[in-house]
Specification:
Largest sheet: none
Number of strands: 0
Helix content: over 70%
Strand content: under 5%
Order of helices and strands: HHHHH
Oligomer: single chain
């Protein structure tokens, strides 16, 4: 079993022991994912990136974990294969942002 598969199993076990799957529909999981991402973002408010990381690293780890947990639960509820969809997105991004045009640049593909 891969580490990702074991991680998924740990998340599902935690959820199932509490009988929470009944609440895990795609809409509510997407909302929760967004809320947790916003909580991560809030840790940067009114600070430089360096200040935020220095002051809030432990809380950032917790919020990022929440984001990833909800992403894994969302993928499960919608029958998405995380490895496959991430690899597909990376392939799409490789075509959209070729190295020779975008290396070292932060412009969007439509700005070149």
């Amino acid at each position: 079993m891969s580490e990702l598969e074991q991680l998924r199993e740990n998340i599902f076990q935690f959820r199932d022991q509490r009988n929470w799957q009944q609440f895990h529909n795609p809409k509510d999981l997407a909302l929760s994912l967004s809320l947790e991402a916003s909580e991560l973002l809030e840790l940067f408010q009114w600070k430089t990136s360096e200040e935020a990381v220095e002051k809030n690293l432990d809380k950032m780890k917790e919020e990022l974990a929440d984001v990833l947990i909800y992403a894994i639960l969302f993928a499960n509820e919608t029958d998405m294969d995380l490895v496959n969809i991430i690899n597909n997105k990376l392939q799409k991004n490789n075509r959209k942002y070729p190295i020779e045009k975008f290396a070292g640049k932060n412009t969007k593909y439509n700005e070149i």
